[in-house]
Amino acid sequence: MATLRDIKRRIVGVTNTQQITKAMKMVAAARLRRAQENMINARPYSRKIESVLNNLLSMEKNVPSPLFEKREVENVAVVVITSDRGLCGGFNMNAIRQAEDLIKDEYAELNKSGNVALYCVGKKGLDHFTRRNYKIDGGYPGIFSDLKFEFASKLVLDISNKFINGRIDQVVVVYNEFKSVAQQNVLKKQLLPIEPEISESSKNSVTEFIYEPDKISIISSLLPKYLNAKMWTALLDSYAAELGARMTAMDMATENAKDLIRSLQITYNKERQASITGEILEIVSGANALKEA
Fold this sequence. Notes:
Layout: H1 4-59, E1 76-81, H2 91-105, H3 108-112, E2 116-121, H4 123-131, E3 136-140, H5 149-164, E4 170-180, E5 183-192, H6 200-203, H7 215-292
Helix pairs in contact: 1-7, 5-7
């Protein structure tokens, strides 16, 4: 049975933990505001490039770019975006589980023959897949401490060059999309080959533009920017989702610590009262024994 000293020591330990989780929640909340601003600011650029590209592709059917080439899928690259640190609930495991399910369900045969390569952005995903002997062609831990657009462009350049050279036939990105502080959705999006989403409004558009030098040249110049923007928004989304998940997890941990402290305090008071009662009974018994003597 725990002594009063043990219970008191545990109360102090849980209180210290509560202070840490509360501080981590406040830090995550402060960083989340900045991350949300960056994410919101990047979305219009990405959407506009996609809109312009889709509009051009609705008019130009035969674009001589290898980035549109659909071929038999023999080699696949899966980009998995996780965090560098834990304490963010199921954030990392949700993305990791989605990537593993994708590999086991859709690319099972390719994976057996070693034709599924992983690009792990974030230490948690890299550690997980390394321990399980997956084929990893790229590991990028520690990038979220100083997230920059240059990283996204370099990663896209590496992957797109391998796609153009025929070393990769399909590229899929798995990451957490930020919906709210309490909600993150795991997404699986194909990056290459590019599949334009041409809406009916684009097909039936009567607006005519003059393009200089020509539509094909503009499409060719937009494609790298389009891929960079896609990867950049995925990284920003994932980082904001990570901070939101950590903020929620630390808030729940703080509340659980509060409940545990309350429960321990009640136990401590009961044990203390029982100890006092026992001491009183011993004194009374001793006094009665002296009287009888």
